[in-house]
Amino acid sequence: MSGRHARPDPWDDGTLDSLLVLVADSLGYSCHRAPGEIVILEGATRLPVSMRDLRQLARLVPRDDWPALVSDHVTTIVTAMEEPLDLSDFDLAQHLLRTRIYPAEADNGVLAARPFAPGLIEVVVVDTPTSVRTVSTEEMNGWPVSGDALFMLGRANVRGDGPLQVDEQDLGGVRVSVLHGWTFYAVTHLAWLEEYLSIGPYGALVIAPNRSLIVAHPLRLNEGCPRARYRAAVAAANELQAQAHRAYEEGPGSLSPHLYWWRGGELTYLETRYEGDSLVLPEEFSSVLATLAAEH
Which of 153, 159, 185, 254 is the most buried (most CB within 10 A)? Predict the structure, then answer.
């Protein structure tokens, strides 16, 4: 994990936007802005393009390579949606299905999607050797399996692809578990986080800043005195929140800059704020921690 702080992009002068418009036009699409740094391509179909993802990819190559980068990126998205992939035969299609986590603003109203966590959605996608494309509700409704059963199948296929790598790291003096992999589906594994880590009844602090990374800190409230346990939880929250912001800005595939509390399989958004240099946790979370700590 990089400790480099995000910084403004001095070269982000509108060139990528202009290139996107040119490439889209050459493919028969027009462009218009949408919330959340999304540009919608309107043409044979309606496609969202994340400018944040595009900028993150552009940072990795020389400026002279930007035209080719944008062309490849947009062409891949368009081809994935326009390619004549016959999904009507569910017996064949089911092996290609996965569930992938996206930012909530990616939901265009026609995706086979459901809430995953505050600010995040779980989307059914088709994973082929050349592309990953989302599934529409119309396509889903044509199958003999839909709803929760379809999402369970997608998750099962993600699990079948193999586990993530787990590394124990020291993050600013806080012990964390880093789950990562070269896959678009790493964050889907949050659904069975307890199979990777020993998580007690107090749950874990978790971040999922981009598509390839989960960082978790199980809360141990049965060690030390109550005041020390609480300070340890606040320190962990502070480090994870800072890491979430860094990794979210760096990408690629940014998901969420937020801090979550994972408990019993549910993810709760912890709305943090700073007073001076001190991180302040939500009062409700702090009171639950204090209560739990006092009981042990």
Answer: 185
